[in-house]
Fold each of these.
Amino acid sequence: MIHALAALLILLAAPQAALAQDLPGSEASQSEAGLAGDPVAMWQAEPTGVLSAEGVDLAAFRYLARPLVVFGDSPLQPQVVEQLRLIEREIGDLAGRDVAVIVDTDPSARSAVRQALRPRGFALVLLDKDGRVTLRRPAPLSVREIARAIDRTPLRREELRNGAGDEPIN
């Protein structure tokens, strides 16, 4: 698990273009190239994956997913490492609630996500499917706490009444 977390941190520190390195013309590189410019398509293809904030438009996730954004000043910031470790252990619970995990650890890049949510240092921000901020915390949270915050929202309660998604965490 430590190796997976280290690899994730290295990927987050690399530019997004470097994430889709494969042999030119191969089927894998063509499908990755098609997804590279569309974070929503990347999330739909791999709901348990983690997206870089570079090129993400939060409005594109509206009514499709709940963006969970992990902000930090560096990919090696202890709170970022801890939050990603907590998420990695139970990412399936988040995927079952239509959560798209987005990481922004480069304040100098001034991503659209960072400009929209304006974090200071480490921040964990959860948006509901309608784009409203549901949760904003300056410290890491367990997936259980994040799931409870999701389960308390009106949109999630409606999903549960209609039979969509996982059962709530008590």
Amino acid sequence: MKKWIKELESQVWSELIRFKANDQPAFNLALNKTAHLVDLYLLSQVAFPTGGLYFQNETWIKETKGKRVIIHNNYIIGYDKKMKRFHEYGLSLVDDHALESPLGKL
């Protein structure tokens, strides 16, 4: 992990993306440069579905109920849209008291 962090921080664009929501290019770069140093495994699609699979297939949701660990909230852009979708599907474990928190939106 320390090697990944060093690699990311050494990139020219590191400062430009530090406060942006999309860190996927940085993650991919670090992974590709260090893949030979770590064991990589594919995650089960049933246990770790993508947003494209989960949110667009009601039959699949019913067939795999109780088997999911984490649902990736991708295939949608924007924090508010992602939060709304998680709430609509009953997947948000965070209540609506973010404004009462001294931290605000996390």
Amino acid sequence: MDNWLCSLRYRYKLIENSEYEGVKVLKSAGLQGKTVAVFGCGDSASYSDTFCGGMRELSDAAQEAGATVIGSVDASDYTYDDSEAVVDGRFVGLALDDVNEDDKTENRIEAWIAAISPLL
């Protein structure tokens, strides 16, 4: 398998223990030559200071394992206070908030798939 899609839950700036074990496995997975796209689901109102932050942990782990990470998304169309998943004004993957911005979810998914598909 040459391509991966990844997501995890992220609460209060701590990855849940079972998922952290998965991140450790991902870091040592030997992903040289692989392409990884990351997505996350969050609540930008209730967790506006950590919105989809777990995507950064996955993106960093995949890169550490040698993968090429694709699928960053412009963060300017989102309402949130802070996120570790934003680098240079872009989420490291597709951030979704089906609680507060459900009206944007379908278009965001379609645009993201169209953007990453040629790279997979």
Amino acid sequence: MRSDGYLRNNIDADRLAEDLMAPMMDGLQIQWVYEPGSVDVLERLKSAVEPYLTVPYED
């Protein structure tokens, strides 16, 4: 992402993955398994990632 210019320069990609993305995705997946359709996983992912990007998240 950084080499393509999508990730802001002041963001450590490894730390972002470890501290935010992995735990968040685990929680969303568990919630989805217990109650499918109760959470929009893609929308939650987009809203969590977008502040760290240089461009808007697009599908």
